[in-house]
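User: Hey, my collaborator sent me this sequence without any context and asked if I could get a structure. I don't really work with proteins. Can you help?
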Amino acid sequence: MSEAAANRGDSLPEDWKLFDPDRYEGEIDDWQRAKAWLESCQAQNEDEVFLMQCKLMGVYNELSTSLLRDGMSYKAEQAIACLDNQAKMELLYTTTLFCAAQAFKLQEQVQPAAELCTITLERQLLHKHFEPQEWSISALQLSVLYNNPDDWVRAAQCLYASEVMLAKVKKEDLTEDSVPNLQIGWGKFHMVRLSHAAQLRKRGIERIPPQFEVMFKGLSIDDKKLDDTKEPVLSKAIEEIKSLDRAREEFLQGQSRLIGAKQYYTLEEHVSEHYQLTQDHCSMYSDLLVFEKDIGHKCKLLKRQADLFEPLITSLVHINWKRYVQQMDIQCGEIYLEMCDLKREGFVDGESPKQIERRKKINRLCVYAITKSSDKFKHFLKTCEENGKEPEKVDESIEHPFVLSHMYLARLKVIVGDPSVRVKYLSASQKYYQWIVDYIKKNPQSEAKFKREGEMSAEMVTLLPAKIRGIQDGTFRE
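Assistant: No problem. I've predicted the 3D structure and written it out in structure-token form, which is a compact way to encode the shape of the chain:
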């Protein structure tokens, strides 16, 4: 039940009881009982019982839906009172079945819930029982249920229909978050498509695109057909993403939507939403990287990812956002670490002036990435401190990144340079490897979780002292 309806203390309008008693005897009571069972299953998760009750009451004959009355605006409720008995029965019937859709959703049976909601929207358009903004919101919510590889065509049609319907609403009547939420819906649509394409590319899998399945067939909003297959966005929804150009196109579409949403969900007023949008944006960069082959371009994409996180890490100083900062510290540190690894791939042997200069340039870039990565991992560890000291044991929820931060810091090293610089980095690495060995000894219950890290650290603690001595006395050779 909507909060507005609950506050008004509404009940079914009196004239809903004017049905022909010979034809509709008991239906109103059944509807009220079904609605009560819906509220019960929402509160107590008794959805299976509710579904059985619907069947026993004879109101579960076919799967067709309409918007639940308590979700309607007051204007829509007033309009219902003017309907004739046949129209009221249509609305009553579909409303009752909408309760079943909610029960399916509570049972996490997404497909039947989505199908019921689709019929709801189609029937509302057909019988003209809807309020544009509420219909748009319902279509947007339905797009989430369809946002998967088998149903992208449906998801795109829902988003397109939502956008068309929202355009009918007067600007002064729009809720302030309606347009930003639609932008988020489109953004997540492009994000999920790009992510799926990246996974297929990593695994070398070719996928046959689904057929275009029409929703809202023959229905239109004014002169806009909702099944218009000429719309570019709908045709793109079944086009597979196989090339860098196509991946970049999908990325730019999603990025534009997410940036648009962030204009409303600002960091100052909507921290959680802004943070999630930033995470989605960065996720799209990660998936685009899968299609990029040029090392220089990859590093630029990684740098743009880091640039999205850096301002948030600096701004979110309040203790309430500590977990957000910790998450971004780790992600940022990993990004710079990946940049360093990519730069090392370009390392060249040889003693020609050109080769020597290239090595120096690569090393400078690596030192920059190492410094940035080190700063982020150290900042994460600082957020874990208790009374200014690093704890011997942390909460299980952050133990994994806590240990891995030490592992990452141990890995950071330069390629070439002054022996004293190399010794400095290797000595720091030895310290972090030793920390991991000691941590596992103090917390034996964590040994299985960090078996690989523990074995590697123990080996490096043994090998590094000899390597450091060799560099210092000039006897060590790579």
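In plain terms: Confidence is low (pLDDT under 50) at residues 1-28, 42-80. You can pass these tokens on to your collaborator as they are.
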